[in-house]
Amino acid sequence: MADLPSLWTHEPHHILTFRPGDKVADIDAGATPGFDGSKSDAPELQAERNERFAELQEMLYANGRAGDSRSVLLVLQGMDTAGKGGIVKHVVGAGNPQGIDYTSFGVPTAEEKAHGYLWRIRNALPAAGQVGVFDRSHYEDVLVVRVHNLVPPEVWAARYDEINAFEKELVDSGTTLVKVAMFVSLDEQKRRLAERLERPDKYWKYNPGDLDERKLWPAYQEAYQAVLDKTSTGYAPWHVVPCDRKWYSRLAITELLIEALKSLGMSWPPADFDVDAEKKRLTQA
Amino acid sequence: MADLPSLWTHEPHHILTFRPGDKVADIDAGATPGFDGSKSDAPELQAERNERFAELQEMLYANGRAGDSRSVLLVLQGMDTAGKGGIVKHVVGAGNPQGIDYTSFGVPTAEEKAHGYLWRIRNALPAAGQVGVFDRSHYEDVLVVRVHNLVPPEVWAARYDEINAFEKELVDSGTTLVKVAMFVSLDEQKRRLAERLERPDKYWKYNPGDLDERKLWPAYQEAYQAVLDKTSTGYAPWHVVPCDRKWYSRLAITELLIEALKSLGMSWPPADFDVDAEKKRLTQA
User: Fold this and answer.
1) What is the pLDDT confidence band of residue A4, given thresholds at 50, 70 and 90?
2) Contact residues on chain B for A285, CB-CB shorter than 8 A
3) Mind telling me how many Å the CA of B93 is from chain A's nearest CA?
4) A200 and B268: CB-CB below 8 Å?
5) How far is A135 from chain B (nearest CA, A)?
6) B97 vs B3, residue with greater confidence
7) Residue A285: is its pLDDT beyond 90?
8) CB atoms within 10 A of CB A1
9) Contact between chains at B88 and A97 (C-beta distance less than 8 A)
10) What sign has the CA pseudo-torsion B252, A100, B95, B129?
11) What ipTM was assigned to the predicted interfaces of this complex?
12) CA dist list (Å): B50 to A124, B56, B67
């Protein structure tokens, strides 16, 4: 844990990993697993770790330019108001736009519907050297699609295996997956929705449909349980992040990204030219 | 200039606009036009203006979500080492990845070459609510292409009008163009190239071909002069930014973006639902 700030008592990528038998119903969305600090510690630590993430992200980009085909893909799933947008802004946003490839997946367009559900996902995969970010993802096709019966049960039921096979292919081709399930409590969701209704600068984030989804909470919990049970694999595990405390979820997901980047064992790419010869040429140029 | 920090004696979008008759040969890349401060003023001011940019960028994104079709497109052109990458990282990077659409244009791929030169450009145009960033652009097709005679003279010569027509179409469809020509001096370029050769963490940015391009400086100056003379239009003017002082170019381009966003006269989108009714529904949900 040499690189991990000492306020973490456990490495987030260990303590937050979903384990067989873990129950969604038992998740305490207000907890701060593995972190021994408080909200007041967060701003300074977040700023410091944002820089560390940015440094590693630049190194991945540099290696991509130098021919390394690897990439990282952050997959964000969570109930409304869990804070996906805040992760994009305050965590991913610390990176260099040059090497960040963000995609948001909404209700499928007509063109998207004309293809299989993984078509739009494949089109958005990060290129070599990029940190891709999926704001929602192919997991919508076993979450909202399952809860609302948008396809027959045998169709969505087959998707867990399809997704595992798809992700295996991704990992084998050099993409490190960071899958994050963000959990917010019903009470905190209510508070956040109320805030959107109080602030005219937040109206645009409010969607009356969110209240209808809220009523389906038990069905979503069941659908998330199935996702975690069936698609948390050794090569692409799920991380379960409690999100009632935004400062914690941001710190935790930053560490998940840093760990994924560190696991690539990168260094700055060596010169693919004769440094001394170029120095000589430059003095004469 | 209510919103402009007082260290600016002139609005950057005025003082940096290319004017008919201006000569590229006369540009002082070390100058700081319109700015009455120094390098020591830059960090605090940059941080403050980054926040202002981020706020306006989020407002554009919010309006895009609410049905406003407008967008902003920053076009960055400049000689090697002028600092395009630094603008992307330190200026654009202050925005939210959700609303930033970055594209780098390199040597055309086989697929790109099979189409007209504007094909890849059109494919990369920002969607509603986005701040697009072009790191190099269609102007490569009248810069490097002209200098290296990659197409016959009558072909590149026709492109200035084609580009003007293309940009007119863009502007008419709601895209505000911010075209920035970044100028670095020969001496400063040499210093920056030397730095890349001294630092192993910068080798990846060094390209031996840059030294060959350096020898073509006069031809590039001529090509830039033609670009500015022929494509600085009322609806899509060029801004000429001296870039020997990175802190100045970053502050200046931040202001150009802020001004472009402010010119859209946006406010937060109004609620497209009954706020009081939703508050009532929420208390019962």
Assistant:
1) confident
2) 190, 211, 214-215
3) 6
4) yes
5) 9
6) B97
7) no
8) 10
9) yes
10) positive
11) 0.93
12) 28, 10, 26
